[in-house]
């Protein structure tokens, strides 16, 4: 199982590097979308906690 995780990790790292090198604008867009998703999730959790306190 540990071997499989290492292989998957290497594949993901190679894919990320390939994407950054071949299409840096696309990679930047993907990072921005990821951060927007995290930000939206955090906002939702904050709204939920605020409603619980009320």
Summarize the helices and strands and which ones pair or pack:
Layout: H1 2-22, H2 24-53
Helix pairs in contact: 1-2
Sheet bearing the most strands, described?
Answer: none
As a whole number of angstroms, the C-alpha radius of gyration is 17 Å
Strand content: under 5%
User: N-to-C terminal Cα separation, in Å?
Assistant: 47 Å
Roughly what percent helix?
over 70%
Sequence of secondary-structure elements:
HH
Number of strands: 0
Question: Which class of secondary structure composition applies to the elements?
Answer: mainly alpha
Architecture overview:
This protein is mostly helical and 54 residues long. It is 94% helix and 0% strand. It has two helices and no strands. Helix 1 (2-22) crosses helix 2. The longest helix has 30 residues, at 24-53. The protein is flat and about 50 Å long. The termini are far apart. The model has no long low-confidence stretch (mean pLDDT 90).
Offer a few descriptive terms:
54 residues, mainly alpha, 94% helix
Describe the structure in brief:
This protein is mainly alpha-helical.
């Amino acid at each position: 199982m540990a071997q499989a995780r290492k292989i998957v990790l290497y594949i993901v790292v190679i894919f990320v590097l390939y994407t950054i090198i071949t299409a840096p604008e696309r990679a930047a867009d993907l990072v921005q979308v990821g951060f927007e998703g995290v930000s939206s999730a955090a906002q939702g959790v904050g709204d939920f906690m605020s409603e619980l306190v009320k």
